[in-house]
Amino acid sequence: MRPSTLLDLAEKHGVHLPDALTGAEPPKLRATDERGWFRFQRLYDAARSCLRTPEDIQRLVREAAEEDVRDGSGWLEIQVDPTSYAPLLGGLIPALEIILDAVDSASRETGLGMRVLVAANRMKHPLDARTLARLAVRYADRGIVGFGLSNDERRGMARDFDRAFAIAREGGLLAAPHGGELAGPASVRDCLDDLDASRIGHGVRAAENPRLLKRLADRQITCEVCPSSNVALGVYEKPEDVPLRTLFEAGVPMALGADDPLLFGSRLAAQYELAREHHGFTDAELAELARQSVRGSAAPVDVRERLLGGIDAWLAG
User: Fold this and answer.
1) Sign of CA dihedral 280, 26, 58, 45
2) Which of 103, 87, 95, 31 has its CA nearest to residue 260?
3) Cα–Cα distance for residue pair 195/147, rounded to 1 Å
4) From the CB of residue 310, how many other CB atoms can be counted at a distance below 10 Å?
5) Rounded distance between C-alpha atoms, residue 122 and residue 187, angstroms
6) pLDDT one-digit tens code per residue, 148-170
7) Which domain CATH number covers 19?
8) Which positions ≥6 away from 302 have C-beta within 8 Å?
9) Residue 195, domain extent
10) Adenosine deaminase domain: from which residue to which, for each copy (predicted)?
């Protein structure tokens, strides 16, 4: 969400925002302890509470697409938990349909390919996750391509959600749970062993375990790495501490992402700039990072071929 949009929506709906969300700079965050995570979640929830009508959702999704196009992206997969919006949008199914309609409209208006991953919340009961998984499968023909698991990975065991992920996989959706961010390599291993993940949200802490790195590389499991987010939340102290080079040289595919630009203050292109500036990635290596994100996506074959051709053209130019 753009900061200006947040302020507009807060004024529109009479929402009082925390001071940390009204300043010119992104909030100072550190989520590696309980108090820090609670503050991060409180700010996230405050921003989300400003989305109260279908028009708000449409604006949010359209602007996200516009920002990605501006950064040179040709494909965007957004992850959403529709239960967060259900109380204000008429229920779970209406909320999901509003989101899917917004994605479809934004894609047509901007020319950006877009799809949706439905995410369960590991802080809620696993039965809720099963409900979401069934709903995601039901709407697979409307642009849902995957099923995720979000929130603090230090809470809620991955295996508690194994049935939900089985439902999603059996319905043809890719499994993309979060792991290996606030928790260590074991949380990545749990995503593989218990949820049969085909993609990992974050996954950077796998760099601490060479055997796990090899496993990810051998299976070509893409890690959705968000360097600026990792630093902002205190997972790593400095951009150069994020183990991009370790993952890359181990052969682990990565899809760089911005996570939440509102709270972390940077978007997609900035992640590639970080890789160049702080990790010495060359143009050829940056191009390979971009290719990895395309290959790890749920984009149709013809879209992948077009995007890969564009990357090759950028490198050749």
Assistant:
1) positive
2) 31
3) 11
4) 14
5) 13
6) 999 878 777 899 999 999 999 99
7) 3.20.20.140
8) none
9) 3-316
10) 1-314
Amino acid at 27: P
- Please report the DSSP string for 206-228 in residue order: GGG-HHHHHHHHHHTPEEE--HH
Show the DSSP H helices in the chain as ranges: 3-13, 34-48, 54-70, 86-89, 92-110, 126-138, 162-170, 185-195, 210-219, 227-232, 244-250, 261-264, 268-279, 283-295, 301-316
* Active-site amino acid positions: 181
First to last CA, the chain: 33
Contact 175, 165 (CB under 8 A): yes
Place of tokens 């099963």: 130
Q: Does the pLDDT at position 34 exceed 70?
A: no
Domain count along the chain: 1
CA atoms 49, 6, 40, 158: torsion sign: positive
